[in-house]
Amino acid sequence: MPDSASWQDHPARSLVRVQDEPPVWSFGELRLRRYRTADHGIVLALHREGLAQVGLRPGDGVYYDHDFFRMEDIYLRNDGEFLVGELDGRIVAMGGLRRADLVPGGRARAFGGYAPGAPALDAVEMVRLRVLPAVQRRGYGAAVVRALEERAKELGYRVLRADTTELQAPALALYRNFDWTETRRETIGGIVNIYLEKPLR
Questions:
Q1: How far apart are CA 136 and CA 93, in angstroms?
Q2: Measuring CA to CA, which residue among 200, 131, 134 is closest to residue 168?
Q3: Residue 164's CB: how many other CB atoms inside 10 A?
Q4: How buried is 27 (Cβ within 10 angstroms: 0-12 exposed, 13-18 middle, 19+ buried)?
């Protein structure tokens, strides 16, 4: 799960864009860059570890990972982005942007729905925020959020959307620290899913 440490807790480090395309940032010793196909196994394992950390599991109606098997289609070739954070060459953080019209919401998304997006860019989802437990509370989750917000603006989106669960308190705190607003709640398989939004312009 992302760390909930405040961005201001790390005044000695700031997020610095060091390359425009493909995008690269530095945050102290952390390097953020675009996902590559060779990252797949590590990224999938980090995702699964993050969900297991809060007790989410396959079949609960909330857990899903089918998008990790279509990274290029869903993220990189369809007006989205997926970033990984490296520490000493090891992936320890990640997060993505995907068009909100690509994957259904609520319980339908656990079943692998996918559809091509409409031509107009409007809303984008910030998804898959994960930080390796051993390096949480260092501001890495906040760095990923900042970088993804920057990319969403560059891609021309009007609004950011996200959802998380009550079980994922650090993720919820991170969104709130960045001025996201809760829009609704939905109970899926006994788990409360929280939907949030943030305008970009």
A1: 9
A2: 131
A3: 24
A4: buried
- Among candidates 119, 127, 154, which has minimal Cα distance to 17? 154
Question: How much is the pTM?
Answer: 0.85
8 A C-beta contact, residue 38 and residue 84: no
Taking a C-beta distance cutoff of 8 angstroms, is the pair 95, 72 a contact? no
CA 193/CA 191 separation, integer angstroms: 6
| Buried residues in 173-190 as b, exposed as e (16+ CB within 10 A) | bbbebbebeeeeeeeeee
Picking from 189, 13, 37, the residue whose alpha carbon sits closest to that of residue 111 is 189
pLDDT digits (tens, 9 = 90+) for 49-67: 988 887 777 776 767 788 9
Average pLDDT score over residue span 30-38: 98
d(CA 177, CA 70): 31
DSSP strand pairing (159-165 vs 191-199): antiparallel
Amino acid at 49: E
Q: Which residues lie closer than 8 Å to 28 by C-beta, 6 or more apart?
A: 10, 12, 13, 139
> What pLDDT is recorded for position 118?
53
Question: Which residue's entry shows tokens 């021309």?
Answer: 156
